[in-house]
Amino acid sequence: ESLLKKLKKSPNDFIKYATRYLEFEDVQNWLQYVVPEPFEIRCSDVPLLDYIEFSLKGKQGTAWGHIAIDEAQNLTPMQLRMLARRLDNPSAVSLTGDLAQGIGAIYYEQWDDIAEHFDSDHECFKAELTKSYRVPKDVIEYSLKFLKRAEVNVEAAEPFLDIPNALN
Asked: Taking phi first (over 0 means left), then psi (-120 to 50 degrees means alpha), and beta for anything else, what does residue 27 get?
């Protein structure tokens, strides 16, 4: 935490270390978030703290055999790499989500963009859920108008429920 606070407080200290490892554009992006006065560590800093600890100490603790994550489309690249550091071989990660419902700072065009943050030695399997058991047919058909206009590259779900006047 003290290292992160020092890097966020002092642009000179950050530049001294960062120029060895980061591209110029990444250094510029970081400098936008420099906070000269004292600040508290926030939840959004956790992946960065994890990266700093990993860089200083290497892999620590017990690796998990399986990690399951829902709403994976909302994770940042740093959060994805934080998860990847917790996997060991053999291990697995199950990621679920809907790319069309991404609300995070990063928008992923395809699942491969998310999978690339994990070790390439692991084999990646993708399965698409095609049946909707929660949303009635009328609602799905209505929402397709917006999906097409938004040019989101996902297949429409096949409705299981057919409830009269569900849209109303």
From this structure: alpha
